[in-house]
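Q: I'm writing up a methods section and want to include an example of the input and output format. Could you take the sequence below and give the corresponding predicted structure tokens, formatted cleanly so I can copy it straight into the document?
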Amino acid sequence: QVQLVESGGGSVQAGGSLRLSCVASVSIRSFDGMSWYWQAPGKEREFIASITRTSMASYAGSVKGRFTISRNGAGNTVYLQMNSLKPEDTGVYYCKAWGTTPDWTDYWGQGTQVTVAS
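A: Here is the clean output for your methods example:
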């Protein structure tokens, strides 16, 4: 069973930075890609950023230019560097491992809380 564990969340002032980590129990090369999602209180989980096995990255418009997703190559960790944080970035951040085969089931972490104070 694959496990994903996020860390790095916390409280920060607006304009500050945080770096989230997602550690997988297997090499992340096992997956076609990894993604970060964000969930604000009382709202649906939303896509933030994604990176493929070949390191192609994509971002939601709301974070483009502020957040950067990266991976440690052949290792088991994906990062989300978050700069210029805003109070509206507050929420729980989740990591997801995904594949593209027909029988694939996504794996999710338990989430890490980010609170941005104004």
